[in-house]
Amino acid sequence: MKKYLALLLALSLLVLAACGHEEAPPADETPAAWEPFPYDLAIGREPVTHQTLAEDGTVVCTALYEIPALAAEGELNEAQQASLDAFHAAMEETLAGCELLYESLSEAALSDYDFKAETGLDWYGHYTDEMTCTAFTTPYAVSVDFFGYTYSGGAHPGKGNICHLFDLEAGTMVSVDDIADGAAFRSAVAEEVLAQIEKEELAEGYYEDYETTVREQNEVQYFFSENQVTVYFQDYTLGPYAAGYPVFTIASDIYRSTLNERGLRLLGYAE
């Protein structure tokens, strides 16, 4: 993900005295530094929607995408405005990815519809792609949880979560390794997930190597919210579809000691 950092230029103002032809000392005007500011978060206020029709007017594909937006309460300095702009640019990149997926999905839907019309096979209904989101905010960060749902025929839809943690001061997305001792964080999360699996007696529905998958945490998504993290393992990683979508909620006490100073500040744990 690109980093959208504002380039703040230092301005120098040289004032000449009006009398006696004496030079006044230069007064350097330094741009205001970034500091927390009040803002509102809006989700789903203006969702992006699409619809694709076959030649006979049948709806073959639809989409709905929710993108979060921030609105400042009051006037911002240059650095603060830059952080808002960077957040919105990052969200636009997410939307652009969805648009590419929809283009491919709608082409597949049209092809499938035409094929079934020609061969007399049943059309099971239009394809769809949806992305909804929730978010958690602190003065220093916005944590976003995107939930994607895609149906393209077949017995089951595809679904999954993509989570982002955006550092408002730095104007960039951050990873677990930026805000914590990554290995220690993942180890603490893994042991808690395994404990929950044992407590809820979920293991019999999972693959034999589920413990290894839990500890490796490849492509796992983390949504940080108030005093907890929600951990998403993608579909089919721990077990078959019938085992359910593997989601675990972990209290901050489990992983808080692994966070560094930046992580404590971004997540609102710093005193």
Explain the layout of strands and helices.
Blueprint: E1 11-13, E2 27-29, E3 39-42, E4 48-53, E5 59-65, E6 69-72, H1 78-119, E7 127-137, E8 141-151, E9 158-167, E10 172-174, H2 176-179, H3 182-199, H4 210-216, E11 221-225, E12 228-232, E13 247-251, H5 252-255, H6 261-266
Parallel strand pairs: 5-7
Antiparallel strand pairs: 1-2, 3-6, 4-5, 7-8, 8-9, 9-10, 11-12, 12-13
Q: How do the strands line up in the largest sheet?
A: 4-5-7-8-9-10
User: What is the terminal-to-terminal distance?
Assistant: 30 Å
Largest sheet: 6 strands, mixed
Give the low-confidence spans.
1-26
Q: Report the β-strand fraction as a percent range.
A: 25-35%
Could you describe the 3D structure shown?
With 271 residues, the chain is of the alpha+beta class. It has helices at 78-119, 176-179, 182-199, 210-216, 252-255, 261-266; strands spanning 11-13, 27-29, 39-42, 48-53, 59-65, 69-72, 127-137, 141-151, 158-167, 172-174, 221-225, 228-232, 247-251. Strand 4 and strand 5 form a beta hairpin. The radius of gyration is 25 Å and the shape is flat.
Brief write-up:
30% of the residues lie in helices and 28% in strands.
Descriptive keywords:
three-stranded antiparallel β-sheet; six-stranded mixed β-sheet; 271 residues; flat; alpha+beta; 13 strands
